[in-house]
Every structure is written in C-alpha cells, then in structure tokens.
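Usage

Read records sequentially. Each one opens with the input sequence:
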Amino acid sequence: MKKIALMGVIAISFFLLFPLSWRIGGRFFTHPFDREFYDPVLLVCSDHVEALRWHEVVKRATPSMGEGCTFHVPPERQEWVMQSLAQLKSPGDSSWTLRVKQLGGNRQWIDLELLGDGVAGMIYEV
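and closes with the structure output:
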C-alpha cells in the first residue's frame, strides 16, 4: 500500500511542478536568435563557393552577382561544392557541413551547418 501511495504522490507532484520547472528551465536554456550568425545560405558560383549570411545576400543583390551564381547545388557538382565548402574559412576549429536532398526538378532541401563548439546553421529550400 505504501508503494502505491508513494507512486501516486510522485505522479501528482510531477504534474503540479511541471509548469514551474518549465518556466525556470526556459530562462536558463532559451537564448535569442542571432541573425548575424545563424542564417548562412550557400551561394554556388562557377569557380567558387560562398557561405553568406542572409543580410549579406540582400546587400550584395546586384545584377553582377547573378551572373554564373546560384543558390541551387547542381547534382553533378555536389561533390565539388562539398569539397570547396570544406576549404572555406570558418571561425576557430569549426567546419562547414552540407546536406542536399532533391525535392523535385528545380527544388532542393539544403542543410548548411557550421560544426564546432556548437552547431549553427540553417535549413532552407531552394
């Protein structure tokens, strides 16, 4: 009988204390989204690859940037893009990783991440 009563007290206390623990935990483990760091997109040009932040793409959106450059990773050049991305400058001991899935004829799912002491990156569709 004692075991059943103890299990009942534990279950009830879990449901009563869960909202409080959720609020306390949220304050310690939730951080604001930093647009300056976490939103890289991949720009593939004919001779090089760039990992640009979204606000840099908007600033550099000129007709000359569009010549020979695309956000789409051609399937036949995917290996070259991955090798070029691995050689890009990254902060500290981090490195770039790329996963590309074809969603259709002209659509791709791109997961571009910077792995190091933590994970930063963006998943987007092109």
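Summary fields computed downstream for this record:
- The chain has a mean pLDDT of 79.
- The CA atoms of residues 4 and 28 lie 35 Å apart.
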